[in-house]
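It is worth pausing here to work through a concrete case rather than discussing structure prediction in the abstract. The textbook approach is simple: state the sequence, then state the predicted structure, then interpret. We follow exactly that order.
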Amino acid sequence: MTEDRQLANMFDEAEPPAPEEVASANDILLAMVRTAKGLRIYLPNNPVLIKFIEEVTGKIVAHMEQYGELRLDVERFTLSYKGSYVYENQDPRESLAFRLHADGICALIFLPGLDQSELTVFLDVIGYERPVYEDDDIVTQLWEKRLPHISYLLEEDFVEVDLSEEETEWTSQQEAISRTYALLAKSPPVPLQPIPVRLLALSPEETEWLRSAMQAEALRKPMADVITIVSSILAGCKDPFIFADFLEIMSNLTVNMFLSGDIPLALKLVRFLDKLRKVGDIDVEQREMVSGALAGVLSDRGVEVLQEAIDTTETVSAEDLTELLHILGLPALGAICELLGRVDKLKMRKIIIEVMVALGKDDPEVFTPFLSDPRWYLVRNMVLVLSLIETEVALAMIVGLISHKEARIRKEVLGFLERSGDPKAKNYLLKFLRDESSALRIKALQVLGREKLAFGLKPAVALTTAPDFKSRELAERKAVYETIGDLGSEHMVPLFRDMLIKKRWFGKGVDKETAVCAAAGLGRMRNQAALELLEEARGLYKNPEIREAIDQAISSIKNGPSARAEGEEA
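Step two, the predicted structure:
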């Protein structure tokens, strides 16, 4: 400090301050710096900025309530409080102390009664470096703002001080400027002179440049500028608190782009965050923060908007969707599953399924939570994904749904068992013979018969002796006997003879439905014994429906496998 300033400070610093008082001042300076930076990058209504302003105001007010006015002495790169340094920054572009010192301010004084609005104006004035072409310095701007609870002293104030004088009231440059301004206000206004037209004339080249500049300015997109600024800060930020704040901004921007339907821009932001996470110069904790931000990109509403864009527009290509889902990955698995359940375009559904298979291939159990989801269509989609993974773990997860309460899910499981080439999977078909749905029982019987799964013969025959078998629909009983015919050999012919020809007690003949079922089963056997039995029975019946069933069975045997009974479910 200069000798004059040291003498001036003696009036305020009779004894050194307590450590907690200095710590309070230091805390205030840190909050001031953070808020000044926030004023440069946040909009006035941003919650983060509002929080910063409230915090720094509260800290200053609390300090003054306990210790009185807050005075900060300004050196070139430092600020001190009662002889203790509480701020230092050697970078002229960022240093608050340097900006104040360069404009001749040597002390700042905050007085009781300071409020948020006044402090905000002050920090906005001193918080960033002015362009070289801007005339007003900090002193002039502070004077124009007329901040009643923030004062300052200039170097000239100390130079003019004479301690031997009896006058005790010092006149600061701020007061001098105020008096000058008052005198000028009383003077008659000077009439403005018209500017010669020739001074405003532009050359053709200048006119063209100005027109091009105006057109370029009109085409600029404010959102693109904001994204560029935020991206640049994230890419080079080392401060963890500032990084977290700007990551939140970028995350909100990404979500808002999805919600507004600007999917291409949202994808661009997702790509940036992914690149920042993978190759950015950030630490492990920050990478985890970026991953968390990506996981939250697809909200419920975001999934809905993305689905609408996929199904009703061409703004999302197959490549874009693949890249997006791979970037979001397992943390966004729930949203991806929901998207699969909503999208109608078959091509895009296939892409989503392929991505999910890739995500869960090494660990299918990541899909376990979704198998108990109350939305049946989502569980059904999980069965499809697991069926494509084709591992023992995936098979066990699928067959665990055989008894699911929703028939549409059980149907998907049955479809998987039908498509599967794993012999172990086929054994689970037998469980569907006891399913509560007649359609699924018939489907399981048809698969057993068509694929010649011999282990299904005994269970099929056992069904014919069940107490409720005769009360089941004709279509199901017919399917049972067709399966017996597919899986049985000539030793099953006696069973069908009893059904087709043998007289019942009291001379009662075979009923129509039993004869039709027997004919259907014999038609699947395709051997000479079955053919002879059908031809023998043909002459015994006059009922047209029975004769038609027998004729179809005979034709099926004579024409071979290509003449399977029509109507079998594919």
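Step three, interpretation. Residues 1-13, 160-171, 504-508, 562-570 have pLDDT under 50 and may be disordered. The two ends are 95 Å apart (CA to CA).
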